[in-house]
Amino acid sequence: MAAPGGASPQGHARGGHTWRMGNSARRRGAGLFALAVTAVCVTATLVLDGCASGSATGTPDATRATAQASASAATGQAAACNADYCSPADWDTARAATPLPQIPPFVEPLNVVISARSTVSLADIQQALGKWKTVSTATTVNITGIHLKCISSETADVAAGGYVPQHVAWRLGGCVAGNDLSLTGNEDHVRIWNQPVAGSRYGAWFIAASYETMCLVKNGVLQTASTDKLYAALHPGAAYHCVDGGPGSIHTAHPDGYTDAAADFAAAVGAAARSRGWHVSQRTVTVPRGARSGEGGVPFGPAAYVLTVTG
């Protein structure tokens, strides 16, 4: 695949993408000095009611997410705040190393935000979505004889406390059915990070969404795994998930794996909210990014969806 576009600085290496073999992470970035951070945060809080730690209720995942993010926020502060969120230190994830030379290191966009003005919990949104299931980095499954991890850890800095792994991850269809969808290029998944915001019960949730295809390297070339499932089963180290729109992917339905996944996930949240009688508003914001493309050179733009879900 082509190297990621843009001039995003080297961060710290992350684990592989979706179910890649583990690659240890190394830290990057430093927080602002505590005194300056406190002054900025107090000012932003008075003016914009943002920037301080909050609390979350709901599933254990959501509770742990807020606790982790609160600890991170104590060491730094995002630059600018509004009622929906504080701007993260980086709107891209940290650069990921991969186990395959055919897939160079890459970043991915944070392309959806569930805003701090939402009064519906993340757990309730997930329940309303129905088919979007929590997946774990610790789980391995067997898909048509191919042994793979459900999802890998990626890192982002949304609370200005440094790059941390996703607090929770969901996949359409869950681990087994979702990876089965990847054989046809229809696997949509999201990684989610929490940002505490003053005055908000749940804080803001920053999300990286992408469509992916199960792919493999055979004879040094990336190709879709569906073309040779037996080879993928016998050579699990050669199997990977390729973002739709890049080499090794099926991209007929989703030619732009990042943009399409973000749009479809935002639409799914909106439909789920309306089915429960909740109010949902959506706006699109333009954000600064250090890169213009992600895995396999798949492009992404400066847009991010911001959703507010209230009961």
Give an overview in words.
A hairpin with a 2-residue loop joins strand 9 (204-218) and strand 10. The protein is globular and about 55 Å long. The strands form 3 sheets. Strands 1, 2, 7, 8, 9, 10, 11, 12 and 13 form a 9-stranded mixed beta sheet that branches. Helix 3 (122-129) packs across helix 6. By secondary structure, it is an alpha+beta fold. The protein has one domain (34-310). It is built from 6 helices and 13 strands. It has helices at 34-48, 60-73, 122-129, 174-182, 229-234, 257-275; strands at 112-114, 132-134, 140-143, 146-149, 155-156, 164-165, 168-172, 187-195, 204-218, 221-224, 239-243, 279-286, 303-310. Helices cover 23% and strands 23% of the residues.
Assign the structural class, choosing from mainly alpha, mainly beta, alpha/beta, alpha+beta, or little secondary structure.
alpha+beta
- Looking at how many chains there are and whether they match, the oligomeric state comes to single chain
Number of domains: 1
What share of the residues lie within helices? 10-25%
Biggest β-sheet description:
9 strands, mixed
How far the N terminus sits from the C terminus, by CA atoms, comes to 44 Å
What fraction strand?
15-25%
- The helix tally amounts to 6
Radius of gyration using CA atoms only:
19 Å
Low-pLDDT runs of 5+ residues are: 1-16, 18-78
Gross morphology:
globular
Order of helices and strands: HHEHEEEEEEHEEEHEHEE
Beta strand count: 13
Average pLDDT, all residues: 78
